[in-house]
Design a protein that fits this description.
- The protein is mainly α and 51 residues long.
- The chain has one domain.
- Helices cover 31% and strands 0% of the residues.
Length: 51
């Protein structure tokens, strides 16, 4: 788990609601978990996390 800059706050990443993200999930399921799950985020979305 990646820690948040503001402890206790929930993260927001718009891409998690995109059809492309769900297609990646389905592809991974069809391939029995073999592959890479890429979660795209903007620089502002990335700033939510301590990275």
């Amino acid at each position: 788990m990646i820690p948040m800059n503001e402890k206790g706050k929930r993260f927001t990443i718009e891409y998690l609601n995109a059809p492309e993200f769900f297609q990646q999930i389905n592809t991974l399921k069809d391939n029995y978990g073999e592959g890479i799950l890429e979660i795209r985020c903007s620089p502002n979305e990335l700033k939510q996390f301590k990275v």
